[in-house]
Amino acid sequence: MRTAVARRNEMLDALTDNCASGKLRIYSGTRPTDSDTALSGNTLLAELTMGSTAFGSASGGVLTANTITSDSSADATGTATFARLYQSDGTTPVGDFSVGTSGAEVTINTTSIVVAAVVSCSAMTITAPVGT
């Protein structure tokens, strides 16, 4: 199935309410197969907070985050390998995302995180796949 852009936008827009003030947690270690897989051997490095309106309207099958509040004091020292977005309840996972200082789904100020340092996110996008 190949999904129409309008349907992909609708699916993505549903995340906006679910992720209002949700948590974007940055981890070290091996990225799990999917966000339904429990974390194992991963260290929480930082926790950032999505805006009360987490995303703007989807366009072209892409959802772009509004301002994300920085973590003013990182939880641990380590190398960021992925991020997991949680709904506003802080426990229901939405998805796992690549992290980096550029060219990633979640753009953060550094992947070399040091305990008590500021971790900020300058961009986050979610792209709905077209299908096959």
Task: Give an account of the 3D structure.
The structure is a single chain. With 132 residues, this protein is mainly β. The chain has one domain. Helices cover 11% and strands 30% of the residues. The protein is built from one helix and ten strands, in the order αββββββββββ. The strands form three sheets. The protein has a four-stranded antiparallel sheet with strand order 2-1-5-6, with no helix packed on it. A four-stranded mixed sheet has the order 3-10-8-7. It is globular, with a radius of gyration of 14 Å. The mean pLDDT is 95.
What can be said about the biggest beta sheet? 4 strands, antiparallel
Number of helices: 1
The tally of strands reads 10
Beta-strand percent range: 25-35%
What is the percent of helical residues? 10-25%
| Average pLDDT figure | 95
How do the strands line up in the largest sheet?
A: 2-1-5-6
Termini, distance in Å?
A: 6 Å
Quick recap:
The protein has 132 residues and is mainly β. The protein is 11% helix and 30% strand. Strand 5 and strand 6 form a beta hairpin.
List the helices and strands and how they pair.
Elements: H1 5-18, E1 23-27, E2 44-49, E3 62-64, E4 78-79, E5 82-86, E6 93-97, E7 99-100, E8 106-108, E9 112-113, E10 121-127
Throw out a few tags for this protein.
132 residues; 10 strands; four-stranded mixed β-sheet; globular; mainly beta
